[in-house]
Amino acid sequence: MARMQETLQFARQRGVITLRSLLLLFTGGLLLLVLIAAVSVSFDRFRDYMTDQLRGHSQDGATAIGLSLSNAIDGRDPVAAASLVDAVFDSGRYLSVVYIDNQGEEVAGRETSLRELKVPGWFVSLADLPLPVGEAEVVRGWSRLGKVRVVSHPGRAYEDLWKVTSRTVAGSVLVAGVGLIGLFWTMTRILRPLRAVEIQAQALGRRDFRRRVDITSTRELNQVTRAMNQMADDLGQLFEGQAKLIQHLRKVNNEDSVTGLASRRAFEQRLKVEVESEERAAPGVLFLIQLADFARYNQTYGREEADRLLVSIGDAIGGFSRGHSDSFAGRLTGAGFAVFLPGVSRADGVIWCRQLLDQLDGIYSDFSAPMDVSVHAGIAQAAENRNVRDLMAAADEALRQAQADEASTCHAADADRLEHYNSETWRAIIKQAIRDGWLSLWLQPMVGKGDGDVLFHQVFSRMKTPDGWVKANIFVPMAERFGMTPDIDRWVLTRSLALLREQPDAQLAMTLGVVSVASDRFRTDLLEQLAMAGPERQRLQVGVSEQAIHHHRVQVGLLVRALNRLQVPVIVDRFGVGGVPFSYLRNLRFQALRIDSSFIHDIDSHEDNRFYLESVATIAHSRGVRVYVTGVETESEYSVLGGIGVDGAMGYHLGRPFEAGQ
Questions:
Q1: Under a CB-based contact definition with an 8 Å cutoff, are residues 578 and 588 in contact?
Q2: What's the rounded Cα separation, in Å, for the pair 124 and 133?
């Protein structure tokens, strides 16, 4: 009876959908849903974009006609007004142009209807673009003559929207088809070995153990399965132990124990923020540096001598990093190092990499004589569509190509990638922007963690270039290298104080560049301007980066004490990346710390960073210092901060930057 029940159950299971079919249906369905969602989102976003274009075009037309009727042409003359309206309407870019007087009577106007559109009628009904009306006043002297109402013709907008939508749908169908075919082929190949496992499971279910004896492949497959399961268990335990060890090391120290550079974990975490974070992502170059034959050197001279070599190499790389604003370095492996320089082009990166390699080669040769040694480096450029893994892989491949040469050399990847501005071009662009005032003041809110109120707004600049407006984190590192940040900071300070005078309830914060802090002339100008500003200076918080504290402690001490006397609040900016002990909190009076965004990125999955921030908050609050964080880009990151004890948070998730006055 039991045997019959097992047979019936097996027969019923034969009608159940197979694993391959289930995976194909689920994955294929998910792929189709994603593509449909992508097409829908693309359609909605482009439709909104075209609507904004129509609104802007209508308003621009109305403004232009209104100005012409107010100044160039007498708006009281119906004939002249009609001539102007006819000339504008005959361009074919408007659906309606009407000039009405103060009583609402039409003085002049032309209208037409939607017809002969080069798109299907059903698509016009689906898109249903709104027809925004642009209005402008017509005045003569102090007299109001009437107003102009303009409606843009949406024909071109419908045609563009139809082209984009049809191409998007066609591309999505093609991608879906290719994806499903590839998915079917992949699943067939991957799941083919499961047939042998299924046969073995059926035999075991029938209590048939003879297959282990009669079919050797079954026994070998069983051994492989047990071995792989055991290996998976061992690897899981190993990874768990390594994760605990990394967390412990991060809690104790964020630096490499031998060289004093950033540890691999710390370097990669900060690199991820610089490359992938929406708020800070900017062009730059990555160096991967490797000491050749280091294992042989270690065996020949011993571990103690090898550590001395690594310390000297680390000092040289650290000095190089300190000489380039916002750059950072770390030790990745025994003889492997990495340096990231934000805002640097590939061409300049190659030049500086060669200079660094010459210095490192000299140090390595002095230590290893009479051994013949060399140093190799690979260079890769950060780009908008390249994540950290791809950037590291490109630099590693370039390093492998450099290692093919026995002599010390560096090799740059991405020779065919579009080049970023070189240093001389940046120098000319920044100089012209400062001279001609091609700068714009932007604000971003710092939100209180408890009630969600805006505590203050961080101010920073954006600069106009031939390619458009660029964020401060792109051009400020170059301005630091050229010593131009004092001029930029003067401009920001002047605009910030003017904004505070215009808005009595506003609270602002600005951050000074490292070069600005080190400049005696700038510090004098800053203090004089703040002293003349009056009470509004107390509503402006001045930030000093931790790198500036590390490299210019005397100048920072003088500046902080002078700002304290003026009752200007002072913030330690980018806290945690300068390698400075907490002792300066005891020696200098700061009102707040702003944690660097590298500690906030993915904090919901980094327990060691949470422990670090909790410790910082506890120490800072014990000294009456507030703690702010930056770089909050997700809800999960923001929710974790609630239990850490920070006073405020800033990031794209809480409020995007906006131009002052808007």
A1: no
A2: 19
Q: What are the Cα distances from residue 143, in Å, to 69, 77, 106?
A: 13, 15, 18
> Does residue 224 carry a pLDDT above 90?
no
User: How many residues in total does the chain contain?
Assistant: 662
pTM score, two decimals? 0.54
Residue where the block lists tokens 């002599």:
407
Instruction: Report the C-alpha gap between 563 and 489 in whole angstroms.
Output: 16
Separation in Å, CA 12 to CA 15, 16, 204, 524, 636: 6, 7, 19, 88, 45
Looking at every residue in the chain, the average pLDDT score rounds to 78
Alpha carbon distance 265, 253 (integer Å): 11
Contacts of 592 (CB under 8 A, 6+ apart): 541, 569, 571, 572, 625, 626, 627, 628, 647
Look-up of token digits 């209005």: 135
Q: Is 619 exposed, middle or buried (0-12, 13-18, 19+ CB in 10 A)?
A: middle
pLDDT digits (tens, 9 = 90+) for 510-556: 999 889 999 999 999 999 999 998 888 999 999 998 888 878 888 99
Amino acid occupying residue 420 = H
- Cβ-count burial 122-147 (b if 16+ within 10 Å, e if not): eebeebebeebebebebbeeeeebbb
Average pLDDT over residues 414-438: 76
441/489 Cα distance (integer angstroms)? 11
- Find the angle CA(212)-CA(217)-CA(222) to the nearest 5 degrees: 65
